[in-house]
């Protein structure tokens, strides 16, 4: 039953259940259900109504919001998004995360850092989570185009939203939510000044998209190209650790 204590020694009782639906998505699912029922019972167009009813279930599934077991280790940066690692490269951070924004809080330092790009298909969970605990220093929305989010140029051309988090020790982590071909709305759950825990929900992107994470200088990726990762659980990097990771594509 809800509220039962579970632990890593096998104690507790758990049953499978469909993950909760985030409130942001309930209205879209209900609208799809109403339209499909209108075709089925109002117009008696079963050839349209049944596929739409199936699509309604897909809409609810898109906005599912499962619980995650978040690593409790100050040395690690966790994945902010579910999806596929499609790009890992050395780049300069976005200028919006580096320039003086007129506040007393500085941005990221200039210089090449490792960027990890995570592509989310329409089948992935689209709730984005904080990669580290700290204070939100910047939330910057940039309008743009909607090219394929899997392309490298999407980081600079697509509609996007930059978020900068400062840890208690002063270390800053930046990441960017990027709209794609299907995605048409980036929804933030946080604002500058908010305090977040590692793995806390910070926003979502509707219907297929990408998230770029900018690791601190002197930190390399602990994930590989082609690896599927889980928001709030997969460790992207260990701060200050540089090590070549090799694997075999299956």
Automatic annotation (TrEMBL):
- EC main group: lyase
Q: Which gene name does the record give?
A: psd
Would the keyword Ligase turn up in this protein's UniProt record? Answer: no
Question: This protein is called what?
Answer: Phosphatidylserine decarboxylase proenzyme
The active site of this protein is located at: 209 (schiff-base intermediate with substrate)
Q: Which cofactor does it need?
A: pyruvate
Question: Which taxonomic lineage is given here?
Answer: Bacteria, Pseudomonadati, Pseudomonadota, Alphaproteobacteria, Sphingomonadales
Site residues by UniProt (Cleavage (non-hydrolytic)) = 208-209
EC code: 4.1.1.65
Q: How does it sit in the membrane?
A: Peripheral membrane protein
**Which UniProt keyword terms apply here?**
Cell membrane, Decarboxylase, Lipid biosynthesis, Lipid metabolism, Lyase, Membrane, Phospholipid biosynthesis, Phospholipid metabolism, Pyruvate, Zymogen
- Tell me how the cofactor is bound: Binds 1 pyruvoyl group covalently per subunit.
- Pathway recorded for this protein: Phospholipid metabolism; phosphatidylethanolamine biosynthesis; phosphatidylethanolamine from CDP-diacylglycerol: step 2/2
């Amino acid at each position: 039953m809800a509220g039962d204590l579970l632990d890593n020694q096998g104690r507790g009782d758990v049953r499978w259940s469909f993950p909760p639906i985030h409130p942001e998505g309930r209205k879209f699912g209900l609208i799809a259900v109403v339209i499909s029922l209108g075709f089925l019972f109002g117009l008696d167009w079963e050839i349209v109504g049944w596929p739409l009813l199936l699509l309604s279930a897909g809409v609810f599934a898109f906005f599912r919001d499962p619980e995650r077991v978040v690593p409790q280790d100050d040395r690690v940066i966790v994945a902010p998004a579910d999806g596929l690692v499609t790009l890992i490269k050395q780049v300069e951070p976005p200028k919006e995360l580096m320039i003086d924004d007129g506040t007393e809080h500085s941005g990221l330092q200039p210089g090449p850092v490792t960027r990890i790009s995570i592509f989310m298909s329409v089948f992935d969970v689209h709730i984005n989570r904080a990669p580290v605990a700290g204070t939100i220093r910047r939330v910057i929305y940039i309008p743009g185009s909607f090219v394929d989010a899997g392309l490298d140029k999407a980081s600079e051309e697509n509609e996007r939203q930059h978020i900068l988090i400062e840890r208690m020790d002063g270390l800053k982590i930046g990441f960017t939510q990027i709209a794609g071909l299907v995605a048409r709305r980036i929804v933030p759950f946080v604002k500058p000044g908010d305090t977040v825990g590692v793995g806390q929900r910070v926003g979502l992107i509707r219907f297929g998209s990408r998230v770029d994470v900018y690791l601190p200088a002197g930190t390399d990726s602990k994930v590989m190209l082609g690896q599927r990762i889980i928001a709030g659980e997969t460790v992207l990097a260990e701060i200050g650790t540089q090590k070549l990771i090799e694997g075999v594509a299956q």
